[in-house]
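I have been asked to look over a protein record a colleague put together. Thanks in advance; the entry in question is below.
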Amino acid sequence: MRTSKVFTLKNIDTFKIQILNWAQQFEKFVWLDSNNPNENDSPYNLSEFDAVLAVDMESGIQCDCENSFEVLKEYQLKTNDYIFGYLSYDLKNDIENLSSSNHDGLHFPDLFFFQPKKIFFIKGNQVEVKYLTTIANEIDAELKSIKNIIPTLSVEPNEVKIKLRIHKNEYYHKINKVLEHIHRGDIYEVSFCQEFYAENSIINPLDTYANLNTISAPPFATFLKLDEKYLLSASPERFLKRVDNTIISQPIKGTIKRGATKVEDEFFKNQLKNDQKERAENVMIVDLVRNDLSKTALKSSVKVTELCKVYTFKQVHQLISTIVSEVATTTNSVDIIKSLFPMGSMTGAPKISAMKIIEELEETKRGLYSGAVGYFSPTGNFDFNVVIRSILYNEQEKYISYSVGGAITAQSIPEREYEECLLKAKAMREVLLNTN
């Protein structure tokens, strides 16, 4: 049981900074921020809240295990409450006969979910606090404590030396290997990724997240802390959302840079909109998502409601499609997620063949990168992002990582794919090197 209290604030942006500072005392928490999607043209005006903080673990599960989705399903049904957490990309090995043996400098568990004692939902200028009833007497004192916080940002520069796991010439070689697979008919498309990393490095996670969020302002910003492990994410992409009997997927495929002027910006938008290679990337994944959704959908309910629409973010323009389906009320939410995991936008088509090629040619175990972070509500509704445009940090190991990639199709040119990777990596690099 939870006890709720609602209050209104004049300056919600200040409160968001205060509450995220306050959260740092906890060993485990999840912060999700949509950065006011209703203010702009956005495909993400679907959320029940603008931001949410879940802190102070009551119960949880954390594993690198077989039958992980069954473990999650049992926990979700038994808890019958809000649970927050993540699914790592390598849970693919629990769904298909696959493995992951590439380098892992981060060592995140494959799966982590927890039931928070305290949840703060922010919508507009209203904050709804939901505490477990057993600790409801703490609400007023903690709200007062939060409002008294005077946030400060560190001015200490990061001493980070970023290295490439795959150097440029090797990247070109690997892309040509992917193209050989495509020309042989093994796959149509694959999302090929590369890691940038720093060893023996220390950063301030809160300051790093704040700077990344400021320059990107994405609709799926995430700050996740799991003991000494951190995810600092500026993700623009929704993986999957359930609203009662409706399932919504919004894959992103197709990227171009922003223009320096309004005229140039419009030129780039039109170029992306009419780029046949970029549209082909998107359409292939839409077909894959339609097929995956059909596994749990009611007959004839899978629909593409938006195809290859251009949306604008601070750093880039993107092509986004929206695919929806209807499911029976009795269809379990974890089963729905499992039927689409990992997301097609981060694998390729056909999915299993693409994942095998990813494991063969990539140098790094993806882990939480290209996984998903989100939550389940007590009614079984859920919302999960795609973990991209993200910095991952293991404080104990002093290891920092960010990965970027792109969809490789028959029309791909290795040099252009490499340029796209650098464009996607720009915000993370600037933040880590203090050059923004």
Notes: The longest strand covers residues 51-63. The chain has a mean pLDDT of 94.
